[in-house]
Amino acid sequence: MNPVPAPQNPKKKALMPSGPLRRSLRAAGHHLTAIVQVGKEGATEAVTRQLDQALLDHELVKVKVGTESPEDRFEAAERLAAGAQAQLAQILGRTLLLYRKHPRKPKFEPGPAEDARGAAPEPRSAGRAPARKRTVRKGSFRKGR
């Protein structure tokens, strides 16, 4: 018997795959403000150029799709991501979070120099564990601490 494949949500097909990178991008993008806005003309060539420059400057960019835009937010997201060679990390309401790795100084992924070295996480220092902060309970007989 062939199992019936689960239907894929067309809204999620444009998003980058789930993983630690996407989680860190979403966390970092939470506090950003929208730099690029899609207006009544839609995702035009000028908007794509502006997004391309913003991705070069910032690596992670929030884009706001206006309510007067002729395109659906998912259509606009696909066009902008394809036009700027970026990955779509999140669609939240009418706000898009787009990411493209910086060619020289990446913030979220290791760069080519770090990959060549095989950078591993720093080993924990051997020796004593860090001292824990003492807590004094409320109503303790030692109030002076």
TrEMBL record:
Q: Where's the CRM domain?
A: 15-111
Disordered: region residues: 1-20, 103-145
Output compositional bias ranges, type Basic residues.
130-145
Which Gene Ontology molecular-function terms are recorded?
Answer: RNA binding
Asked if the record carries the keyword NADP, the reply is no
- Keywords of this entry: RNA-binding
Protein name, per record = CRM domain-containing protein
**Which Pfam families does the record cross-reference, listed alphabetically?**
CRS1_YhbY
The record's annotation in NCBIfam families points to:
RNA_bind_YhbY
Recorded hits in InterPro entries, A to Z, give: RNA-binding_CRM, RNA-binding_domain, RNA-binding_YhbY, YhbY-like_sf
Q: Respond yes or no to whether keyword Ligase is given for this record.
A: no
